[in-house]
Structures are given as C-alpha cells and as structure tokens.
Amino acid sequence: MTEAPRRQTRQRSAVLALLDDQDGFRTAQDLHALLRERGDAVGLATVYRALQALVDDGLVDVLRNEGEAAYRRCSPVHHHHLVCRSCGRTVEVADPPVERWAARVAAEHGFADVQHQLEVFGTCAACAAR
Amino acid sequence: MTEAPRRQTRQRSAVLALLDDQDGFRTAQDLHALLRERGDAVGLATVYRALQALVDDGLVDVLRNEGEAAYRRCSPVHHHHLVCRSCGRTVEVADPPVERWAARVAAEHGFADVQHQLEVFGTCAACAAR
DNA sequence: GATGCTCATGAGAATCATTCTCGCACAGGG
DNA sequence: CCCTGTGCGAGAATGATTCTCATGAGCATC
User: Fold this and answer.
1) Strand pairing of A80-84 and A60-65?
2) Are B96 and B77 in contact (CB under 8 A)?
3) Cβ within 8 Å, pair B109-A66
4) Fewest beta carbons less than 10 Å away: which of A116, B41, B48, B69?
5) How does pLDDT run across A93-122, given as a tens digit for each residue?
6) Are B68 and B27 in contact (CB under 8 A)?
7) Where are the alpha helices (DSSP H) in B10-95?
8) Cα end-to-end distance, chain B, whole Å
9) Nucleotide C19: nearest residue by CA–C1'?
10) Is A110 close to B93, i.e. CB distance below 8 A?
C-alpha cells in the first residue's frame, strides 16, 4: 500500500537528536536556529520536512499556538500535555476517564471516527518563583 | 480599570449577526467572503478586528487548526466542543470531571494559574451517511 | 567499490493568514 | 450641532510555512 520509504540522513538525525535534548515544545524556527548554533547547518525547509515526517511517524507531537506550531519528542502511546506557558517545559500525563467520556459524548450526538485533544496550560513552579 | 469602550458599528453588528446564523466554526476569510455575498461590504482587516474584540468579550470561541483560525458564536459559560471535521458543525458539551482532573494534575506537578482546552473531533451522522 | 535510480536537500521565491499604517468617517457624549 | 477619539478601509508589511528546481546523497545492486 502506501509504504513510506524513509531515508536516514544527517539532517533528520540531527533534528531528532536535538528534539531529544529539549524538554518542552519548540517551534520550527527555534529548532532551526538551535541547529545552526550547534554547527549542524540544516536548511529551514528541511527542518519543516523532517518535522512533518516525524509527526507522521508518531514520534513527535504538535501544538498549534497563535500563529506558530511547536514540536516535541513524545512517547508513542496516547497521552496529553501539561505545558508551562512561560518556559515551555512539558509533562506528559494520562487521563483514562476523559477517553471514555469523549467516546460516550460523541456517540450520544451521532459522531463517529472520534479523536480528541486535551492540553493543560499553567505556570510551572520554577517560572512562578521568578 | 481597563475599561473597554466598545462602539457599536454597522460592521460589528454584521459580523456578530452572521456568526449567529452559522452553526459551526468558520474562518475569518470565510466570514469575510460571506459578508461580501450578503451585500454587507466589510474590510477584511475589520473582520479580524471585530473577531478579536468578540473573543476578548467572551462572545466567540476560537479554534486554531492547521494554519488558520476558526471562530464560532458561543455561550459565555465554560464548555468544550464536539466538532465535525467534515462540515464544521459544532455541539457544545460540558465535562465537570475533567475540570477537577486538570486542576489536580497541575497541582501535583507544581503548576499554577491553570487553564485547559479540550476539543473532540469526529464525523457527524449527516457527513458519515454521505 | 562502482553504478544508477530516486528521494532528500537547500536557497530563495511564492503563498497565505494575519497585522499594521494612516488618512478619513462616524459614534456618542456634551 | 460640534468635538474628540475610536473604528474603518485599502493596501503594504510581516512572518510562518510551502513550493520550485537544480544538485547531492542514501541504498540496493552489480
């Protein structure tokens, strides 16, 4: 079927490695700048392409926030995020009840093929202290 | 303090009236086009300004979806959305448990000033039939 | 190790939503 | 009716993301 032959290149490894070092969501532009500083010269367009591929493969999660998208290395199991709106630090959290709730509510209204997204924003202890 | 002296103009009324006629999320561009068709000539920039004002006043909810923001007339009480990803039809739903859950999880991780967003996407009965 | 077929890359242009600029119009209080 | 300041409109500006296309590099094969 739609086999996706994904080639392993220096640039993609660099993007993934960089994401592993981050502990919060980062925008594509940020990641690009960070790669430059690191010495890994990667084109901006390539960073976008690599991120899209990683999202498709489920290795990275996206967060669309006013105008720009932020990316983060994530575990492949279903989960939600607790994000610091100041520093971007993120904690993965699970909430089994909400899964059932979403399915039930959707069914009640005749919706099928259900998907949901839940994000919690706040100020982490470190940022609140400042 | 920060009093917001909001003037009532033909354009703002038109935007709000149009939103009342829609039963799903619509992008700013869509709303602008619809106003034109209707005969209400309103500048694109004005549509954006009116929408921002309405969001600030809590009369309208925003949904950021790949690239463009969508707006919808909403009740002022806290709620979540069940959105048809095909036709955009939307149902407002409430889930008290998730409110408590969000607060508890945030507290456990030392996060303060908590806020959360939860949206459920699916295909409504009408669209699934097609 | 060389060869070839593709897909990936990179620089800059192109696209698209959104915001800004600024001169003019109008809402609303006096 | 007049004044003042806010809102409007058209087009330019901004900024993120995507596209184009010629060149470079995986990876399988010989």
Assistant:
1) unpaired
2) no
3) no
4) B41
5) 999 999 999 999 999 999 999 999 999 999
6) yes
7) 10-21, 28-38, 44-56
8) 53
9) B45
10) no
Identify which of B27, B34, B32 has the alpha carbon closest to the alpha carbon of residue B72.
Answer: B27
Task: Compute the distance between CA of residue A113 and CA of residue A120 in angstroms, rounded to an integer.
Answer: 24
Q: How far is the CA of A73 from the C1' of C7 (A)?
A: 25
Q: How far apart are CA B84 and CA B76, in angstroms?
A: 21
- pLDDT digits 0-9 by tens, B89-120: 999 999 999 999 999 999 999 999 999 999 99
Could you tell me if B115 and A120 are in contact, meaning their C-beta atoms sit under 8 angstroms apart? yes
Residues A40-79: tens digit of each pLDDT: 889 999 999 999 999 999 999 999 988 899 999 999 999 9
Is strand C less than 7 A from the beta carbon of A68? no
Q: How far lies B115's CA from each of A83, A117, B73, B100, B112, in Å?
A: 10, 14, 21, 11, 9
Q: What is the pLDDT of residues A14-38, one digit of tens each?
A: 999 999 999 999 999 999 999 999 9
**What distance in Å separates residue A69's CA from the closest CA in chain B?**
9
Model-level pTM? 0.89
- The whole-angstrom distance between B36's CA and the closest CA on chain A is 26
Instruction: Tell me whether strands B68-73 and B60-65 are parallel, antiparallel or unpaired.
Output: antiparallel
